Amino acid sequence: MSLLAKVCGLTTAEDAAFAADQGADLLGFVAHPPSPRHCVDLAVAEAHLDRAVLVSVAERAEDLLEVARRHGFRRVQPYLPAAERECGVALLREAGLFVLLPWPDEPGQAALPADLYLWEASPAQTGVVGGSGQGHGMAFPPPGPFLLAGGLDGASLAPRAAALPPSAGPQLRGFDAASRLESAPGRKDAAKVGAFIAAAHHLEHP
Ligand SMILES: O=C(O)c1ccccc1NCC(=O)[C@H](O)[C@H](O)COP(=O)(O)O
């Protein structure tokens, strides 16, 4: 079974079209103004709704849902305050959205149900929410199938997959990368994007 490639932090129609043409399975569009990968015009995602993911840092799930509906997103990656997370994720799933739930590599998280988890570096480690370009210790695996993220690019997929804890390997469904695929903050490098997607699709499921 081929593993998935999610290219995250797309900000322009050109970069999104290139990643889609290269065969990216999922395309992430970030709604978080402090990020260099904030997508000012989420309408660019509307040409790719078959694989677009709304990646949003929001205080309330209702706000995220409103943005998702306005643009037609069918998948969301919600970053919600801890107190909102359980109810918010339930609300988004009840609304029929596919939830790719961020799972930072840190202890003590509630095992909320989700369609897929995104195992990424903890903000306590990186100092930022979401994309940081930093890997993590892979010490606290998600409770279900996941995409592995955190400082990945085409060259690092195979060694990182090989270093997964044995219990986590069977749950690996693919990879996500953002900042190490850039030529400048917020813009993707075509060669790096192509190499990442090819490497993900080349790997066999463990
Ligand atoms: O990429 C961002 O700047 C970002 C900002 C706010 C929320 C989420 C964000 N990215 C989410 C992702 O899915 C990243 O691709 C993932 O954490 C890996 O990032 P990177 O280590 O930069 O490859």
TrEMBL record:
Pathway: Amino-acid biosynthesis; L-tryptophan biosynthesis; L-tryptophan from chorismate: step 3/5. Keywords: Amino-acid biosynthesis, Aromatic amino acid biosynthesis, Isomerase, Tryptophan biosynthesis. GO terms for molecular function: isomerase activity. Its EC number is 5.3.1.24. InterPro entries: Aldolase_TIM, PRAI_dom, RibuloseP-bd_barrel, TrpF_fam. It catalyses: N-(5-phospho-beta-D-ribosyl)anthranilate = 1-(2-carboxyphenylamino)-1-deoxy-D-ribulose 5-phosphate. It is an enzyme of class 5 (isomerase). Belongs to the TrpF family. PANTHER family: N-(5'-PHOSPHORIBOSYL)ANTHRANILATE ISOMERASE (PTHR42894:SF1). This is N-(5'-phosphoribosyl)anthranilate isomerase. It comes from Geothrix oryzae. The gene is trpF.
